[in-house]
Amino acid sequence: KPAANNLDAFFMPFTANRQFKKNPRLLAKAKGVHYWTPEGRKVIDGTAGLWCVNAGHGREEIKAAIVKQLEEMDYAPSFQMGHPKSFELAARHAAMLPGDLNHAFYCNSGSEAVDSALKIALAYQRARGQGTRTRLIGRERGYHGVGFGGISVGGMVNNRKWFGSLLPGVDHLPHTHDLKRNAFSRGEPEHGVELADELERIVGLHDASNIAAVIVEPCAGSTGFLPPPKGYLKRLREICDKHGILLIFDEVITGFGRLGASFAAEKFGVVPDLMTVAKGISNATVPMGGVFVRKHIYEGLMNGPDSAIDLFHGYTYSAHPLACAAASAVLDIYRDEGLFQRAAELSAYWEDGVHSLKGTGGITDIRNLGMAAGIDFESRKDAPGARGYDTFVKAFELGLMVRQAGDCIAMSPPLIIEKNQIDEIIDITGKAIKATA
Ligand code: PMP
């Protein structure tokens, strides 16, 4: 029986899309920092899509690279075979990554990258003769995608509760969003070291010899943009080193310039053992994700007493030629236009802009770092999230795309944004928040 209309045939009854079905908002065209609706209404992209179109939309250089690759070779198997572009890309990534993060595994999304990283971490511990290290530690208000691994270590209870037993042996660090002490602080808030010391408490509960890895977003994104408090990441690194626990940074959002540095690892001077990326890796043209690992992880896997040589992992589309071609063209743009540096330079203007909204429509906190920000406001009585949704809708009506996270609006414009466009984003955001107060 045919569905009643096109939208009925579109099966997405999940919270990410349920409201869309009731009230579809369509995007039909994109260029630079703008989208256009099918009716031709222009909307400024305050979120770089989903924190991913860092170099702006419709980049001709990326298109040309994808088309050229399509003409040369559309696909190559990633099992027992390869193609030169994937090696070239890995070498380019290794050259720009901090420390000795110099081996790359490519996949197709952030969720795949996270699941891959967790598997690599567990396999590494076993390969080096530490097979009892099976426990994983995530963080409350962490978001690591929607794979089973990602929701297990992720810190969003709603994302877990439907799925019964997930990965066993997972603990969560407390989140770092301390409103009482840090509301409206600019950049990194205070009290990082004592918050990171919570990791010692968890290690004390289970004994380090049972713990494989800790995974955190250096700066939590999807749960409202929570910059790490000062000293937090460094202290996590110290505690992990002390106990032989691996540290994984999920840089799906923070990677490729968002914080005004190539990666958060570089910005904070903390090199994780594994790093996950996606989004900005391909400027969201062809789907792509990746895991970067340090030399000791690679060597431990290959040469440990219980070598993981029989470990099977990989996707049909790992290191897809189109994705590699796109990712390489994106790196050219980032380099030639100095976009990471540009983000760093613009971030003070951005900070002043978002903080100018203090005092508007019941705003309770404003957070920023690099070219991203989160703005919290008072919830409606008995309806958490309702005002956030209405604010997002209002902003869209007024010509701005923002991201809703509960009663919070998150923003992360493309890194090619101009100052007058930042002004426009701030202006519309203020109006939308006022309108829903
Ligand atoms: N990790 C982080 C930190 C993310 O922000 C996201 C996506 N927002 C993911 C993982 C999942 O990525 P994807 O949606 O590409 O699976």
Question: What is the element layout, followed by pairings?
Answer:
Elements: H1 15-22, E1 29-31, E2 34-36, E3 42-45, H2 48-51, H3 60-72, H4 84-96, E4 101-107, H5 110-127, E5 135-139, H6 148-153, H7 157-160, E6 170-173, H8 179-182, H9 192-196, H10 198-206, E7 211-216, H11 232-243, E8 246-250, H12 264-268, E9 274-277, E10 289-294, H13 295-303, H14 321-336, H15 339-355, E11 363-369, E12 372-377, H16 386-397, E13 400-401, E14 403-404, E15 408-411, H17 419-435
Parallel strand pairs: 3-13, 5-6, 5-7, 7-8, 8-9
Antiparallel strand pairs: 1-2, 2-3, 4-10, 9-10, 11-12, 12-15, 14-15
Bound molecules: 4'-deoxy-4'-aminopyridoxal-5'-phosphate.
End-to-end gap: 45 Å
Strand line-up across the major sheet? 4-10-9-8-7-5-6
Query: What percent of residues are in strands?
Result: 15-25%
Fraction of helical residues:
25-40%
- Count of the separate structural domains: 2
Shape: globular
Q: What's the total number of strands?
A: 15
Radius of gyration: 21 Å
Ions, cofactors and other bound molecules = 4'-deoxy-4'-aminopyridoxal-5'-phosphate
Structural class: alpha/beta
Q: What is the C-level CATH assignment of the largest domain?
A: Alpha Beta
Major beta sheet, specifics? Answer: 7 strands, mixed
- Which blocks of ≥5 consecutive residues have pLDDT under 50? none
Tally of contiguous helical segments: 17
Instruction: Give me the CATH fold name of the largest domain.
Output: Aspartate Aminotransferase, domain 2
Could you tell me the mean pLDDT?
95
The name of the CATH architecture of the largest domain is 3-Layer(aba) Sandwich
Write the CATH homologous superfamily of the largest domain. Answer: Type I PLP-dependent aspartate aminotransferase-like (Major domain)
